Amino acid sequence: MMNNNKVEKFYFGASSSAHQAEGGQRNDWSEWEIRTATGKAHNARNRPPTGGWPAYILERHPNPLEETNYVAGRAADHWHRYEEDFDLAKELGHTAHRFSIEWSRVEPEEGRFDERALAHYRDVVRALRARGMEPFVTLWHWPLPLWLARKGGWESSAAIGAFAKYAGRVAAYLKDDVKFWIPLNEPEIYANMSYLNGTWPPQVKNPLRMLRVLSHLIRAHRAAHPVLKGINPSCRVGIAKNNIHFEAAGRNQWNELLKAVADWWWNRLPLDLTNDTLDFIGLNFYFHNRIDGWFNRNRNERINDIGWELAPESLFHALMDLKRYEKPVYVTENGLADARDLHRAEYIHEALRAVKRAVGNGVDVRGYFHWALTDNFEWADGFWPRFGLVEVDYQTLTRRPRASAQAYKNLIERWPNI
Ligand code: FCB
């Protein structure tokens, strides 16, 4: 008989991040939002997507034509409503929850750590534990404290030591309550969006600067690792890595070559460079990319509200690609913007079937976190993309679980018979 004591249970839950859900931030991102909101609303009016903005988006508030859409402000007010949100998560059958700690709250000035912010996050963690949910804690989910942004943010090598120090402070405070740490969320997405294509703050478009930022982020992860382990040797440290299922169309050697390069550069290199410090891999999965002469010739038979192809079955391939690392894998994000909740239930079902298939094929998958628990602020797009299992009315801040949240609960209860 198998020794079940050794087998960790499979966690089901949802993810969130501080800037997107809490509200009340003061960081480099919040300042940038205020500076750019008018221009973004203007662009949305003058350069709408092909076919125009659909009515089901415009009839909601905030919508892309409104300036308020682009300023996170009080967001979903999760800072004050986390207990209500966790009650919902528990009712929805979740056994774990991933969230992030906001660096700018914990260290609002260089070297000054705010006890009240730390105490708040301890309450958050304990609120999860009280409901029987395992916390998965991300230490950096993109925004930076203003003092660090002024020093050059991740372009400055000073950020590496500063991050390790911050990580140590948080870990020392929460060491009895947190087992799973994720120092960084998607360093590769951040480096690309903020330093290569210039979409996110500080809106740089420079490949060399992007590489510098990426290398500092990897060094920051590596610097945080011994700090976290030094505080609690039995904690588990991972990374949340956005991997893409690259697929070469046909039996074409050029497509195969592009796929090999893309797999190496995007999917493997950041993991190879952190591998010796990873107890587990967190996979954030959203994208399938069909290569046919060039990247991203997707068929787009089903797309979500922000135009991303829906390819939940591709999760199987992304998971199989991680088998080589021989580590536990948690799907730390996976989801879709779907304001009408038309596709979400089916998407989750297909994604979980992909997880099950990967497990059957020898990948040690141990959890699935849907993005997101509630609707929240989606970076440069703002509030209108609706990723939540739970709908948020941004006028009243009332929460209402979508039908797909119930469907997810049913799958959790039936697992692995889905
Ligand atoms: C991921 C981010 C997360 C959210 C989803 C939609 O790349 O980690 O914060 O914005 O995309």
Describe the model.
The longest helix is centred in the middle third of the chain and has 25 residues, at about 205-230. Residues about 1-5 have low confidence and may be disordered. The chain contains 14 helices and eleven strands. The strands form two sheets. Strands 5-4-3-2-1-9-8-7-6 form a nine-stranded parallel sheet, sandwiched between helices. It has one domain: TIM Barrel (Alpha-Beta Barrel). The protein has helices at about 20, 30-45, 55-60, 80-90, 105, 115-130, 145-150, 160-175, 185-195, 205-230, 255-270, 315-320, 345-360, 405-415, and strands at about 10-15, 95-100, 135-140, 180-185, 235, 240-250, 280-290, 330-335, 365-370, 390, 400. The chain has about 425 residues and is α/β, with parallel strands linked by helices. The protein binds beta-D-fucopyranose. The site of beta-D-fucopyranose has 12 residues, from loops.
